[in-house]
Amino acid sequence: MDVHRPAAGAAPGGVVLRPAGESDLDLLEALTNDPDTAGEYQWFGWHDPGYLRRRWRDHGLLSADGGMLVPTMDGRPAGLVSWHRTRTGPQAYCWKIGLVLLPEARGHGIGTEAHRLLVRYLFAHTQFNRVEATTEVENRAEQRALEKAGFVREGVLRGFDFRDGQWRDHVQYSVIRSDFGDG
């Protein structure tokens, strides 16, 4: 199975995930460090502007504990997907994933397909059984994207994240291998 290709039935030139190149770094910095590009639910204030460049230089934004890939649509970068290892028990871990799309890429199904491709990639190349995602309770678009991508809503995490001067509730989602047909 080629995990970088669109799902069956997707339009030609659909969403593809690829490693970030040096030419993507300005885009990735804007998605994480610019309020207009990051959007309402992803803007957490300015931070170290060289962080992503150092990570890219050190390990290409890919490591055993996590990484970032660039979802593209018709060859054009549409945003970023990320994952990091999270402990779930004394000897167990899962992946926690995230997604940020460029403003012009939102609302076109790219997020749903990028989530689906990332889960397929993680299940194909790691032994972890679970992938988690959270999003703010008010972020209905991301909740729909996660559900369409096969994630199961598990519940509300109260006071989970601090953004824009307030503690925010999040909705917890997950998918396990058997949900995704890889059990």
UniProtKB/TrEMBL annotation:
<protein>
    <submittedName>
        <fullName>N-acetyltransferase</fullName>
    </submittedName>
</protein>
<dbReference type="GO" id="GO:1990189">
    <property type="term" value="F:protein N-terminal-serine acetyltransferase activity"/>
</dbReference>
<dbReference type="InterPro" id="IPR000182">
    <property type="entry name" value="GNAT_dom"/>
</dbReference>
<feature type="domain" description="N-acetyltransferase">
    <location>
        <begin position="15"/>
        <end position="169"/>
    </location>
</feature>
<dbReference type="GO" id="GO:0008999">
    <property type="term" value="F:protein-N-terminal-alanine acetyltransferase activity"/>
</dbReference>
<dbReference type="GO" id="GO:0005737">
    <property type="term" value="C:cytoplasm"/>
</dbReference>
<keyword id="KW-0808">Transferase</keyword>
<dbReference type="Pfam" id="PF13302">
    <property type="entry name" value="Acetyltransf_3"/>
</dbReference>
<dbReference type="InterPro" id="IPR051908">
    <property type="entry name" value="Ribosomal_N-acetyltransferase"/>
</dbReference>
<dbReference type="InterPro" id="IPR016181">
    <property type="entry name" value="Acyl_CoA_acyltransferase"/>
</dbReference>
